């Protein structure tokens, strides 16, 4: 994002609609609005008096991200001192600081807090500030920049060939992508670098899906970068933090003993670009001129030195003085509005909490040996590994099925009721998985089990989560006492409620799994089916299943 060179488009005037999630609109404010100060030709909050010919200065309210507020205040004060002299406009700025996501939501919702000018930390927020009547215009593409870097202890940077590999090899602590630019840019960097790495969807999913499950469903997503730096700096920590170079440099200044370093993966990076945005509804041309005048003041020698000391680069991405930061940049292609929308949509979808029932086939065919393990053993390993992908906020239960194995002669057995994944719940599920074995001569009562599982999850429906059944099987229904496939599909379709969806995610294993049968069962509930023909595909299939939320 920003004024890029080479592969990166220089224009920052992309006004295409960017996804605003319902979750994002409901999130509590990221922080209180910071101190408001006035700088102008009359005695303001700081008592500064401007040029003598400025008796009636233009009043301009400006909101900016907190870390940029001191630089803009200094430039506004300097500009006020020249007001009325040599054609310098007479301007009085009232400057406040607030997170970019909050300002975007305020503008989009028609709040009275709408400023005349706005300097967010990234232009990705501009399209999200659409109030239904107009998208704010960009007067100056960038008044400062700061590249996205990855911060952590040196031991956690064994592979810095790409964002994907660096994140996959450590414990990423991502700032909330729906409300912070570094978090959103980290997701976008993983996608943008695929032009260079040719990483597959599966490779990306194996890193992003667990990350979204772990971080996205937190009651309070991360928003304090300094707190994350503190965690990353602890002895033995594997935490790495995608953050702005400016925030890292500032942390270094304040914590000279910190054992942290910042790196830019070899594929390159994206940048925070700090555009000057016109958000006034009236007299937009005058306000635009005021923004341009303030931006020009930021280019003076004195302002440039202050900007550099604060850890910001100029609009051309010149390295910081004194060898600070990561030096020369390699830039990734600027994401399109469509790419931004897709990344935020995916994160929101993958972040939703889970309310699921895992249903494991224990029919006789599960005793068949594949390689040096039985299908039962391979399934248990896949289910156990999949369990680790779910955060503590998820709820999960466990059934097994064959034919006539239930206490009432049914085809399924309830082992662990659906409950939040506390350490105790995880222990119960893992303990029950480990003792499972294939039932000798047991058939596959797939149809009755599928219907019963959907009804069970419907009875415990959680409106705040994705409600689903994870159905593992190696074959097809062979229970002569069960309804036909057509009747089963009719029953599942009859249970379907768009307002309270319960989806079957069917995971077939081995060459005997009937892909068409599983597809029809899952489709009847709005779910998806996957078949792993080889044991090594099971983890990939499980990741794919989580993506079908």
UniProtKB/TrEMBL annotation:
Domain of life the protein comes from: Bacteria
Coiled-coil blocks: none
InterPro entries: VWF_A, vWFA_dom_sf
One of the Pfam families matching this protein, by short name: SBP_bac_11
Keywords linked to the UniProt accession: Membrane, Transmembrane, Transmembrane helix
Domain VWFA, residue spans: 355-546
Positions of transmembrane segments: 18-36
Name of the protein this chain belongs to: VWA domain-containing protein
Source organism per UniProt: Kribbella pittospori
High-level lineage: Bacteria, Bacillati, Actinomycetota, Actinomycetes, Propionibacteriales
């Amino acid at each position: 994002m920003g004024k890029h060179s080479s592969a990166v488009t220089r224009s920052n005037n992309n006004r295409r609609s960017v996804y605003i999630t319902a979750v994002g609109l409901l999130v509590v404010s990221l922080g209180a609005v910071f101190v408001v100060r006035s700088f102008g030709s009359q005695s303001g909050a700081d008592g500064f008096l401007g040029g003598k010919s400025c008796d009636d200065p233009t009043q301009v309210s400006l909101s900016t991200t907190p870390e940029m507020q001191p630089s803009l205040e200094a430039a506004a004060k300097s500009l006020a001192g020249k007001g009325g002299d040599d054609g310098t406009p007479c301007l009085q700025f009232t400057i406040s600081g607030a997170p970019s996501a909050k300002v975007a939501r305020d503008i989009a919702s028609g709040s009275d807090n709408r400023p005349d000018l706005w300097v967010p930390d990234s232009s990705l927020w501009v399209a999200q500030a659409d109030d239904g009547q107009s998208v704010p215009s960009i007067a100056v593409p960038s008044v400062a920049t700061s590249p996205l870097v990855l911060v952590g202890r040196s031991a956690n940077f064994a592979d810095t060939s790409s964002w994907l590999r660096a994140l996959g090899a450590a414990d990423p602590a991502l700032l909330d992508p729906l409300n912070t630019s570094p978090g959103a840019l980290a997701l976008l960097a993983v996608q943008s670098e695929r032009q260079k790495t040719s990483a597959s969807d599966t490779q990306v999913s194996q890193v992003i899906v667990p990350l979204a499950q772990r971080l996205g469903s937190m009651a309070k997503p991360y928003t304090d970068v300094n707190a994350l730096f503190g965690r990353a700096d602890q002895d033995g920590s594997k935490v790495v933090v995608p953050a702005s170079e400016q925030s890292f440099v500032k942390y270094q200044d304040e914590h000279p003993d910190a054992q942290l370093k910042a790196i830019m993966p070899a594929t390159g990076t994206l940048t925070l670009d700090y555009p000057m945005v016109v958000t006034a509804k009236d007299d937009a041309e005058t306000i635009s001129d005021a923004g341009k005048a303030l931006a020009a003041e930021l280019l003076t020698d004195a302002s440039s030195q202050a900007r550099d000391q604060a850890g910001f680069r100029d609009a051309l991405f010149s390295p910081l003085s004194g060898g600070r930061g990561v030096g020369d940049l390699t830039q990734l292609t600027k994401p399109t509005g469509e790419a931004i929308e897709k990344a935020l949509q995916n994160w929101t979808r993958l972040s939703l909490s889970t309310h699921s029932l895992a249903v494991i086939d224990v029919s006789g065919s599960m005793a068949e040996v594949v390689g040096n393990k039985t299908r039962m053993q391979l399934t248990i390993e896949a289910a156990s590994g999949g369990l680790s992908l779910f955060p503590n906020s998820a709820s999960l239960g466990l059934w097994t099925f064959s034919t006539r194995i239930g206490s009432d002669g049914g085809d399924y057995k309830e082992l662990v009721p659906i409950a939040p994944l506390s350490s105790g719940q995880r222990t119960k599920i893992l303990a029950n998985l480990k003792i499972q074995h294939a039932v000798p001569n047991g058939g596959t009562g797939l149809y009755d089990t599928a219907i019963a599982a959907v009804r069970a999850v419907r009875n415990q429906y959680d409106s705040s989560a994705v409600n689903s059944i994870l159905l593992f099987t190696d074959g097809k229904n062979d229970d002569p006492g069960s309804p036909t496939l057509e009747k089963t599909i009719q029953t599942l379709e009859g249970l379907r409620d768009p307002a309270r969806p319960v989806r079957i995610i069917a995971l077939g294993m081995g060459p005997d799994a009937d892909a068409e049968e599983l597809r029809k069962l899952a489709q009847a509930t709005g779910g998806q089916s996957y078949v792993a023909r080889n044991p090594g595909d099971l983890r990939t299939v499980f990741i794919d299943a989580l993506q079908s939320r």
